[in-house]
Design a protein that fits this description.
Elements lengths: L3 H15 L1 E2 L9 H7 L10 E2 L2 E2 L5 H18 L3 E3 L5 H12 L5 E5 L15 H5 L1 E5 L9 H11 L3 E5 L9 H15 L4 E5 L4 H5 L13 E5 L10 E5 L17 H13 L5 H14 L2 H23 L13 E5 H5 L3 H10 L2 E2 L1 E3 L13 E5 L1 H5 L4 H21 L9 H17 L10
Helix pairs in contact: 2-10, 3-10, 4-9, 6-7, 11-15, 13-15, 15-16
The chain binds D-serine (DSN).
Amino acid sequence: MADKVFEIIDLEEQRQSEGLELIPSENYASRDVLRAMGSVLANKYSEGYPGRRYYGGNQNVDQIENLAIERAKKLFHADHANVQPHSGANANEAVYFAWCRPGDTILAMALPAGGHLTHGSPVTRSARIYNFVGYGVTEDGDIDYEELERLAHEHKPKIILVGYSAFMKIPDFDRVYKIAEEVMKESGEEILLMADMAHVAGLIAGGVHPNPLDHGFHVITSTTHKTLRGPRGGLIVSKGTVGNPLKKCEKALENIPTLVDRAVFPGTQGGPLEHVIAAKAVAFEEDLQPAFREYANMIVKNAKVLATRLQGLGFVLQGGGTENHLILVDVKATAGIDGKFYETALDQVGLTLNANSLPNDKGAAFRPSGVRLGTPAMTTRGLGEAEMTKLAKWMKQVLDICVEVGNESGLDEHRTQLEEIRKEVKDLALKFPIPGIEKDS
Ligand code: DSN
């Protein structure tokens, strides 16, 4: 008899197929990516790096990891890639560890402004070890560069970090580079310019978003499962001289590749997940194809159309719209309800997104005033302008129901109407099968 786990996986496959995934950090990996992840590579230990392992039997694994490294370098115009981080959080942790001592200052976007937990939120390990100083965003949703500049001069950080999980503008990497240069002149100390591009890495790879490494940044961290459409995992790419990771090297920006390698293993991780690294290699090859450039372009196009349609229906959007894949709706300002209630109601019709805090949000962390959504997953399924229009219409219908009933328990009064919308969502979703789980005909 099949394990219960597989029954539940089937249910999840059905949920994904019949609903529309609007969470901007999720996507659908291809069947080849899934196949590599479920391979015998999962059986292997390979601590170390290609050609320098602490275990025997790595002749095949070495080839795979080298492929992943070479493809990642090509995607991001990098001198070096480390494909071993288990996640984006681990990738960030490794870069901090590579460059900072405990107590050193890191200047990063504050969490309430759209930054990520691992950029120094007080509840994380990183905040206990390093001294994070947070910059914010302006009224129109852009990075507050004046504040960033003032804080950089005041605190002389060891790292300036540009990265976020709820930000809709294209960062001005040149401006941050210039700020760092001025501060370095004052202090005589090198500053590491780090970009956490987890959300937009696929847009960079697809040529529709600037690449921080082309604008003087030294290192990019990322996840591999968001817009890059690979397996769940992390990645670090950098500029500099690639040295022997088994040997100590001087702390200098030029040595960032080696410092990063040493910080990933043995600094912060043990055995790499070579089945996941194989899946990263497969995804990176897919990302290098011309079709991926079209995909990246379409993600942004869809996001802009969706933002415009939502605004046309009265939705208030943080920052007035989007320049990337991500939209932040101010649900409170739009309809006087909180983001969690709206998220719950949308879930009932098969539209999955997440409640999210807005800059300077007065709502509780679990009941913030906004919701965050995006187009990477829907674009993978092939949805376009016409479907974005339908989606905005459903979102408005559900919002109106929420306003009428006032809270979650009231949703039952509109069960029939919600089920009708759910059926429309399902009918549309099934017309756009998920590439990785399409059945053979
Ligand atoms: N949890 C991710 C997101 O949803 O943005 C960031 O790592």
